[in-house]
Amino acid sequence: MVMLALGVLMLTQTFKIRGGGFEPSGPRFMPFVVASLWTVLALIYLGQQVSRLVRRADNLPAERFTHMLGAAALVVLLVIYAYLLDPLGYVIATSLFFLGASRAMGSRQWFRDLIVAVALSLLVYLTFTRALGVHLPEGVLGL
After folding, report:
1. H/E/C letters for each residue in 94-129?
2. Residues with Cβ < 8 Å from 1, sequence gap 6 or more?
């Protein structure tokens, strides 16, 4: 339900963006596409959950919130990531976020996680900045 509400909120905010219509080169196009897809996927997810509840209404297990600590850790990591992105730069901040997220989700293989985090961060950074011409924060590395 929250995902659906966020999708509707994003759609309404898309129409408040100043600029031309919804041409692919305009400022509203990508936000509209993302918000529309978000809303459609939220509707599909909500429908699946309701149908699951209807089918199993008689023997619903009393589940505990077993993964709430990991989810809360990811939310905290995202907030920290948002604050560190500009001063540290994309590569360092994203690598640290990947490491923290993998730890929060239960991984205990630091070396593998470090290699994957740095490789993915560099790959995304170089792809966006060099190949696509999209500016990402350089930070202390000055790539």
Report:
1. HHHHHHHHHHHCCCCCHHHHHHHHHHHHHHHHHHHH
2. 46
- Cα–Cα distance, 10 to 81 (Å, whole number): 22
The reported pTM is 0.56
If phi over 0 gives left and psi between -120 and 50 gives alpha, with beta otherwise, what is residue 41? Answer: alpha
Per-residue model confidence as pLDDT tens digits over 51-106: 877 777 566 555 555 667 888 888 899 999 999 998 999 999 999 999 999 998 88
> 39 with 11: CB under 8 angstroms?
yes
Angle formed by the axes of helices 2-14 and 29-55, nearest 10°? 160
HEC string of 29-92?
Answer: HHHHHHHHHHHHHHHHHHHHHHHHHHHCCCCCCCCCCCCHHHHHHHHHHHHHHHHHHHHHCHHH
